Every structure is written in C-alpha cells, then in structure tokens.
Amino acid sequence: MISISTAHTQDELSGILRLQATNLLTVLTDEEKEKEGFLTVVHTLENLTRLNDFEKHVIAKVDHKIVAYVLVMTKVSHEDIPDLIPMFAVFDQTNFKGKPISAYDYIVVGQVCVDKNYRGTGLFDQNYAFYSNTYKAKYELAVTEIATKNTRSLNAHQRVGFREICRYKASSGVEWAVVVWDWNNQN
User: Fold this and answer.
1) 2-182: CATH topology
2) 128-186 residue pLDDT tens
C-alpha cells in the first residue's frame, strides 16, 4: 500500500537520494530519457535536509521505500543549491499576470520523481494533490522550470494544473520552460 506524507527523517531523505540517483540525466540512456523523463539536478543529503527544514518535501512510500517525491524550495532557500540560482533570477525577471513571479508568495518544485515501477499509476497526480493541499493555503503559486526536451514531465505537469508562461535558453544551451500552478485560480 502506498502512503503519501511529508518527509521527516534522515532515512526518508536518503530514500529520496536513492531514487534520484537512478533517474539522473547522466545515468539514463537516450531512449530512457525520451520515454521516461529525467532529472537534471543532483542533491546532497545536506541540502535536502536544509530545504526540508524550511518546508517539508512530499514523499510516497511503499513499506519503507520511497517510490515518489516532490522536493520543496522557498524563496528563503534560493541560494542553497547553486545550480538553481539562475532559475530564481529568471523568476525575478518573468512576469505572471502583470507582475514578476518573485512578487508573489510562491513555492518552488525543486524536483519531482516517480519510481519507474510506479509510473502510469496516478502516483504523480496523487503526490501533487497532496503537495497542493499541504501548501496552497500558504502560497499563491507553485513554480518550477522543466527542460523542454523532457516532454514527459512537461505533459504531466500540464495535466495536474501547471501552465507554461515562458521559455529561455540557459548559458549551458539547455532550453527551459517556466511553469506556474496558480492556486488562486484552479479549474
């Protein structure tokens, strides 16, 4: 049986890292990346713990194994993961409904992943429903960026309520889509 909750223990955070390690862009074949999606940022136990101290990550477990997660970041933690600092700079410059994203009370999806054996079961949507129910009273928006080559992730995010508001090309040459889930105007 799958249980969805927020992360509270070092063992749960370590479970997130184990799942992350098997889904990184650098370890997947081109075919797997295209079919299954991929993760781009590598976290450490230290930075996951620090992020979790601000707002708790959402996790799904079967027995004691993490089978899905949604990482949570806030404006306060914007410098905790150096690879993501440019993303926050884009949020400062990108408008949503006439004002910069940074003018809103927003929360960032630091990363989302579902174990390969649980994809297509609705777990992605269930995790995001829990995420939304946990944080929408405190934040106006959920925001993230997705590599445009990661079409599986783009489509899944759109399905749960995120809308693309812009694209930009990073200095690395990767094109990113900035997506927003407006919790004040849910369908």
Assistant:
1) Aminopeptidase (3.40.630)
2) 999 999 999 999 999 999 999 999 899 999 999 999 999 999 888 889 999 999 998 76
Are the C-beta atoms of 106 and 143 separated by less than 8 Å?
yes
Contacts of 180 (CB under 8 A, 6+ apart): 96, 101, 141, 142, 143, 162, 163, 165
| Structural contact between residues 181 and 146, judged by C-beta atoms closer than 8 angstroms | no
Q: Report H helices in 22-173.
A: 30-36, 45-54, 85-93, 123-135, 151-160
Instruction: Quote helix, strand, coil % in the chain, to nearest 5.
Output: 40, 30, 30
Q: State pTM to two decimals.
A: 0.92
For residue 119, what are the CA distances in angstroms to 34, 92, 169?
14, 34, 29
Evaluate whether 91 touches 103 at the Cβ level (below 8 Å). no
**Whose structure tokens read 């993303």?**
87
Distances 98 to 5, 86, 103, 104 between C-alpha atoms, Å: 35, 21, 10, 11
Residue position matching structure tokens 């997506």 = 179
3 state DSSP class of 157:
helix
Amino acid (one-letter) located at 166: C
Q: What are phi and psi of 17, to 5 degrees?
A: -65, -35
